Amino acid sequence: WRTGSDRWRYLLGVLAGMVLIVTLLLWYVTAGERSLAELAVAGGLAVIAAAALLMGALDVSSWRVRQITAAVERIAAGDLDARVPARGPGDIGALSRAVNGMAERLERQSRKRNRERDRLNTVLHVMNDGVIILNKHGYVSIINPSAARILRVTVDDALNKSFVQVVKDYRLAEVLLACIEENAEHSATYELAGDAYVRIIVTPFLRGAANGYLVLMQDLSHIHRLETV
């Protein structure tokens, strides 16, 4: 980003060039006949002033482009609060407004996703049934406290591990494998360690297994004990 002193220096250069051109025009219009040497000097000064104006304008445009580039890089890095001063007409102004509009849309989408994630986490936290969400490779993306309790693991230990590593039971893993092979829902009921009876249901997501799998675990231990009394 260009410092404030640099911007003022270029703006003053542009202003000086404009003043010089206006002065030369007034001198040419109001004066009488001029010698060839005087006209040549005046023409040279006018060319220099015009070049200074052009360089100043190009530098200001370059500075604005660098502003936009820096803002886009910040947005790409996750800083959705980044904005570009959307001043002036022309392509640079239009591009600045487009970048700001993109950042605002991304910020709204991010807030919406965060709200949905908060609602999902709240529902999963209060559910009595265990819920595990696996990615398409069978690794744990989300696990709620009930599932962690049934499997006797902690939530932090289960995250980003394979389903087989978490359940430590080949029978439960076979239900997932059957679901993967047939791309269809599979379920089974097993007695786990500690006299726990668990019903497991594994199903692909509605949009296909490429998006992952949902594992539902129901603790039937209490019902099983009542049935055996």
List keywords for this structure.
2 domains, single chain, five-stranded antiparallel β-sheet, alpha+beta, 229 residues, Beta-Lactamase, 8 helices
What Rg do the Cα atoms give?
Answer: 35 Å
Quote the beta fraction.
Answer: 5-15%
Count the domains: 2
Helix content: 55-70%
- In quaternary terms, these chains amount to single chain
What's the count of strands?
Answer: 5
Computed structural class: alpha+beta
CA(first)-CA(last) distance:
78 Å
Q: Provide the succession of SSEs.
A: HHHEEHHHHEEEH
Report strand order across the widest sheet. 2-1-5-4-3
Gross geometry: elongated
- Round the mean pLDDT to the nearest integer and report it: 75
For the sheet with most strands, the description reads: 5 strands, antiparallel
Q: Which ranges are low-confidence, i.e. pLDDT below 50, for 5 or more consecutive residues?
A: none
Helix run count: 8
Provide a quick synopsis of the model.
This protein is α+β, with helices and mostly antiparallel strands. 62% of the residues lie in helices and 14% in strands.
Task: Please characterize this protein's 3D structure.
A hairpin with a 3-residue loop joins strand 3 (186-192) and strand 4. This protein has a 5-stranded antiparallel β-sheet. It is α+β, with helices and mostly antiparallel strands and 229 residues long. The longest helix is centred in the first third of the chain and has 41 residues, at 36-76. It has helices spanning 4-30, 36-76, 90-126, 145-151, 155-158, 163-167, 170-182, 221-228, and strands at residues 130-134, 140-143, 186-192, 196-204, 213-219. Helix 2 (36-76) packs parallel to helix 3.
